[in-house]
Write a structure and sequence with these properties.
Chains A, B: Plays a role in the regulation of phosphate uptake. Chains A, B: Homodimer. Chains A, B: Belongs to the PhoU family. Chains A, B: This is Phosphate-specific transport system accessory protein PhoU. The structure is a homodimer of 229-residue chains. Chain A contains 7 helices and no strands. Chain A is mostly helical. Chain A has a single domain, classed as Methane Monooxygenase Hydroxylase, Chain G, domain 1 (Up-down Bundle), CATH 1.20.58.220. The longest helix of chain A has 35 residues. The first copy, chain A, is elongated and about 60 Å long. At the A-B interface, helix 3, helix 4, helix 6 and helix 7 of A face helix 3, helix 4, helix 6 and helix 7 of B.
């Protein structure tokens, strides 16, 4: 602990920031790799993504550790405390994005040995939207850019609409040919995972807004001031 | 804030505890009500559950607020800090249990106007298991009982196995009669939600173990000591 005490507070916050950045990049890379493995029906690549989730989990664990240590050794107040609180929440959201990417990869393993993946185009489009939202949410956090964060939140609506359309398409596909039921069911869950990634991107965006403005943005969180100032 | 300063620290921790207790009871009650509405195909009851999720979200918001205030005004250390940290994590898990219960209710709304719910017995059994795990995890937290918490974690394996069995059964059911595809797809997601509730119960159990023992239990969290002592 001694090393931490002599470190400046800013250094500790920068370290947390760097950890979040690394964790975010890793989770988004996991999503890209999972989708790539799914499309190419590459079992080995999908298995690597599943194994790679441990690294994301380890980073969340490290961040939790560092946050506890920072809270114990410093007494952050106002915006500093919001930073630390938001870091904890964001790390939990990134961890879930990593989990959801790993789950896409798991379904990629199941689909690897079957016929070509149905509706591959629609699933890819959804994944691109989800990946963009996650990247933009993380960028808005890294830049502490509240306006950019709010834009991410708005775009999640488009992802939800794309998800609903794909969901219906998959149901129709299954009804037309019951032999596709198992594959399409896995794709339904892949689609759901992608839609959930958008929700986590939205959470990250809202946490960013909270840090910048001292309160959660309206509508979803009803603008209740939390330790503003 | 003045009121808080004169309050004893123990009172503040008790308040957080009471909030978690209330939030946990509410989320589990939401799950019970969602399943009841699903089984009885009662649209109005399902809609009430969906609306009721706001109360769970509001409690998470209140807990986040109280945790920030406690961190700002006190400087909790060691076990006290772990308590506060675990409270934050547990409130996030309960919030997700509430979300998942509301999602079960949403699917209950879709299924309310159709034919009788297929495989109702299997879904009910899964919900009972998930509800038991959530209740036991919350009880182990309320009692700060590490051993009881560890038992919850072990029982999540049984829930996962029941989920996998039901998943296969639903796929077979759909293949036999494609007219059931839409209803069964919603039930697949209901089953998935119930399986996820078990994961959140496990998280709550692990957080309990962490508070009692100063480190996360092995295997899933690799026993790394976090501010033990």
């Amino acid at each position: 602990m001694q090393a931490h005490i002599v470190q400046s507070y800013d250094t500790e916050l920068s370290r947390l920031d760097a950890e979040i950045r690394r964790m975010g990049e890793l989770a988004v890379a996991q999503l890209d790799a999972a989708m790539d493995a799914l499309q190419r029906q590459d079992r080995a690549a999908a298995e690597r993504v599943v194994a790679g989730d441990d690294a994301v989990d380890a980073l969340e664990h490290a961040i939790g550790h560092d946050v506890l240590q920072l809270l114990a050794l410093r007494q952050p107040l106002a915006r500093d405390l919001r930073e630390v609180y938001a870091t904890l929440r964001i790390s939990a959201d990134i961890e879930r994005i990593g989990d959801l990417a790993a789950n896409v990869a798991k379904r990629g393993i199941v689909l690897a040995d079957g016929p070509p993946v149905p509706l591959a185009h629609g699933v890819t489009a959804l994944a691109n939207l989800a990946g963009e939202l996650a990247r933009d949410a993380l960028d808005s956090w890294n830049a502490r850019d509240g306006e950019r964060a709010i834009a991410v939140r708005g775009r999640d609506v488009a992802l939800d609409a794309a998800y609903t359309a794909l969901f219906r398409e998959l149901l129709t596909y299954m009804a037309e040919d019951p032999r596709r039921i198992t594959a399409c069911t896995h794709l339904l869950f892949v689609a759901k995972n992608l839609e959930r990634i958008g929700d986590h991107a939205t959470n990250i965006a809202e946490a960013t807004w909270f840090v910048v403005n001292g309160e959660f943005p309206g509508e979803r969180m009803k603008g209740d001031a939390i330790l503003a100032g």
